[in-house]
């Protein structure tokens, strides 16, 4: 969190300096203060998204920057809607092709991929997979040695219940990849949850948080783009 505050703090200072320089005529083109501020903020989003390999956070800000400077770049015929639509289609296509991952995190096709409406309640190993597209998936995690869950949701809804999962090691990880969808995680109130999810034009919130203990510690990683996730403590 401190690194993020430092990053955005420096970017805002840079924006202030550029606005002052612009007002004193250092830039020949007529650039407004709002354009400068938006450019700096969008550039920050792009840099963070490159680090997280988030195609939505890279391409959409680029399309908006192109729209802001369409006249200077001589691309007025391509903005705004063709540029935004292109960014939209490229983001979907690249996300489907490359399936963003973190560390050893990967989504698999096969029995863990669900289309339409599915309810899965079976015995699980230490690594749990749940992936849904254009539908709804309800997954009950039944693991005696839960270590990691990989949850992918695009244009759909995923509900994952962890109340039957046991974590003898004291540590586990949940990886989220949500785009144009919603993920709901039902987590025991006794778990200590650390949220490290990167959100771009989306939302992540918690409900009914209880008094958790020191263990187990569950860290939630991943990306949310044009979607939302909820942690519901049970």
From TrEMBL:
Residues 7-102 form the LiaF transmembrane domain. It holds the Pfam family LiaF-TM. The chain crosses the membrane at residues 7-24, 30-48, 53-69, 81-98. Keywords: Membrane, Transmembrane, Transmembrane helix. Signal peptide: none annotated. The keyword Nucleotide-binding does not apply. The keyword Transmembrane applies. This is LiaF transmembrane domain-containing protein.
